[in-house]
């Protein structure tokens, strides 16, 4: 799927352009007619915490599912809305794992939780072939790392340093569209989130109420076809601003279909 995505991105810019962005047809319908779409996809997740040791205990490499909700709009000043929640697909991945003592197993997590990510963007520039929208995101974060450490007597026990638990934050957002041809549309997205509140810390985690809140940022590029299929790559990054420096990065490749609701 990665090779398919890369070849598609590399070759499609040479296709002739016949239509304007506002006239892009999706399954025979006007894509930007203020419609709500449900995207369903399979995705490959590669999550790692570069500073965590041993690294193999803090990495996830797996196939799972993904979804998004997206309300389109191409009017000047019009609002676009997009919702996604990565934890839903990652829960399905977890069903294949051993849940024995999962609360304190050595490992790390970096995902959404009950709120997910909500993007509200307003169109600033709309041109024949491209459009740019800016706004804000409301995003939550599920975070935690557990390590097996030895005490002064040589006994091993689990330790979960701060930051950990459920966070919520706000930040700027950007969306851009570029019409490649009558049949292919490139959609770009970027979010930066300043987490403001640790809603629920882990009960067994390190107590550190004065720790600096983590930040995260998200980048995505989706190639949408007029036949409903889409492919894309998404990258999420955690900026852990504590002394622990537990930064994380997640790279995802997707292939799916969008339904008009």
TrEMBL record:
The keyword Signal applies. Residues 1-19 form the signal peptide. The keyword Signal applies. Keywords: Signal. This is Nucleoside-specific outer membrane channel protein Tsx. It comes from Croceimicrobium hydrocarbonivorans.
């Amino acid at each position: 799927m990665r090779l398919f995505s890369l070849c598609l991105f590399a070759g499609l810019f040479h296709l002739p352009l016949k239509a304007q962005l506002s006239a892009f047809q999706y399954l025979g319908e006007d894509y930007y007619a203020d419609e709500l779409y449900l995207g369903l996809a399979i995705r490959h997740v590669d999550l790692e915490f570069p500073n965590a040791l041993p690294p193999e205990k803090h990495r996830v490499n797996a196939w799972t599912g993904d979804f998004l909700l997206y309300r389109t709009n191409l009017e000047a000043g019009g609002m676009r809305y997009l919702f996604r929640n990565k934890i839903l697909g990652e829960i399905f991945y977890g069903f294949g794992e051993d849940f024995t003592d999962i609360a304190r197993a050595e490992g790390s997590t970096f995902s959404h939780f009950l709120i997910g990510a909500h993007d509200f963007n307003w169109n600033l520039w709309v041109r024949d072939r491209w459009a740019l929208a800016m706004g804000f995101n409301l995003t939550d974060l599920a975070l935690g790392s557990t390590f097996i450490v030895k005490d002064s007597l040589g006994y091993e026990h689990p330790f979960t340093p701060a930051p950990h638990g459920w966070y919520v934050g706000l930040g700027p957002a950007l969306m851009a569209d570029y019409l490649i041809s009558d049949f292919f549309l490139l959609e770009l997205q970027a979010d930066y989130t300043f987490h403001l509140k640790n809603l629920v810390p882990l009960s067994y985690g390190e107590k550190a109420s004065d720790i600096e809140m983590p930040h995260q940022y998200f980048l995505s590029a989706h190639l949408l076809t007029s036949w409903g299929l889409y492919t894309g790559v998404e990258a999420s990054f955690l900026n852990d601003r504590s002394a622990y420096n537990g930064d994380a990065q997640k790279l995802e490749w997707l292939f799916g279909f969008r339904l008009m609701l």
